[in-house]
Amino acid sequence: MFTSLLVIFTSSLVVIALFHRLRLPPVLGYLCVGLMVGPMAFDWVKDSDALPLIAEMGVVFLLFSLGLEFSLSKMIALRRVVFGLGTLQVLISGAALGALLMLAGVPTAAAFLLGGGLALSSTAIVSKELGSLGEIFSSHGQNAIGVLLFQDVVAVLLLTLVPVFAGTSDQAWYWALPLTLGKTLLLFAGLSLLSRWVVPHFFHEVAASRSAELFVLLALVIVLLTAGLTHLIGLSPALGAFLAGMLLGESHYRHQIEADIRPFRDILLGVFFVSIGMLIDLRLFASHGVLILGLTLGLLLIKAGVVALLVKWRGSDNETAWRSGLALAQGGEFCFALMTQMQQNNLMPADLGGLLLAATFCSMLVTPSLLRMAPRIAARLHRKPNEEARLEEISALNAQAKKHVVICGYGRVGQSIGRFLRNAQQTYVALDSDPVRVQEAAVAESTVHYGDSQRADLLSAVGLERASLLVIAVDNTGTALQILLAARRIHPSVPILVRTRDDDQGPELKAAGANEVVPELMESSLMLASHALILLGFPQQEVQERVDRIRSDRYQLLHGFYPGAEDEES
Fold first, then answer.
1. Which residues contact 386 (CB under 8 A, 6 or more apart)?
2. Which architecture characterizes domain 387-514 according to CATH?
3. Hey, is 23 helix, strand or coil?
4. Which of 17, 308, 555, 563 is a Cys-bridge partner for 567, taking CB atoms 3.0 to 4.6 Å apart?
5. Which residues pair with 469 in a beta bridge?
């Protein structure tokens, strides 16, 4: 086992470093490592019997972290998504996929059992990618998380039904269903009592000891103990970990718990993705590549279409519907376990199982890229309701605007710039993609509009062709670059000011057409240093000259940083 883990970690170190350079998601790297070290490629991992258990712990830690982000009140607010949208998605997707499997010659019971398994999505990949993209609390993010939680319960039910349909269990399906749901409610009630009356006392005592080691140990014990208890009663350990995290999400120690378990979560989750990659037979891609591609596309299209239609039917806009569908389009890790059990119980042919495993793997492989391309895909598939009318309304509101400032991104920085401009009697128009922020700002300001600043038609609607300045104040450099390129196509000569976190992307933004790039970290350091010199008695004129000189040298004096043991980025 030691040798297997050494091979996995070493290979992951090299591949993830390469993927980081290529700006590719780490999840893809781990899946590729699994393909590479698996028995169908180099076969470097021999004794891998214990890997599934280690890999499952990665999903457990991930769901616990996710639960910390979702308090009980948020989950109550999501109940219509979890039980409404989740139920409809599993039933309709499972029925559609089961019917297709029946047409392919799979027996009826096995077809619909397998269809239910294929209807499940990847909790690990979707949760991790939505978190890294900062979309967990977006409309489509909450739709995806709510459905995934319901799917975790369904996954347990499907696994318990395999021996029932195979004839090796004495329990009928109509007993298995209420028993699983009853266990889930019992688990939730028990964890609620523990999180309210018992666990806070432990955290209080450990916090009073001021021992970081004890705090980490307590966090690990809670995660593993919850997962173990859930497994003992026949439910998914990941589901129990999520419920525990959710109930602890109201605690004062939530942020410290999350920081303590993050290293364990990320490493173990990497092992999980590697173990998924090891299940795939690469020889199938050589002999049945076109068929696997067709199955993958069919799975993605059916599931994405079903979810999009359901979300749209429930009253959401088209962009949210399609982005929810794209997030849940892939197959899931539970499907691998279900197909393995079905093959062991002779419920499905081995050759069909291999093809479906490969197609499910491919759907998971493309998911990180799909989530990153989702805004553009959703915009091409369908625009939001009344979007043309909304663009015309924005254009009409700003038709008379001339020599104004356009602000892309109305967060803390954008709002501060707006206040300065308003104080100087300078008109401006702001765009932001956060509907809640725009709704709150619109109460006091009529010049703030909702929309994606990367869209050329929206920039034209706010009168960029007649503007005297464009300020890009978004906090993502990739998004800022796309806005910059779109703006230059519309107005090649407008001055553009771009805000960044540091000076690393300055040359790239300058090359794309930015007139000025203002790095936050450099500017804040410069302001603190200038105030320090003034307090030390230096003449204000001399301090200002020094500041101007450093700015003209592109902050060269401030470059270089000796990282300490507790430093991450600052």
1. none
2. 3-Layer(aba) Sandwich (3.40)
3. coil
4. 563
5. 405
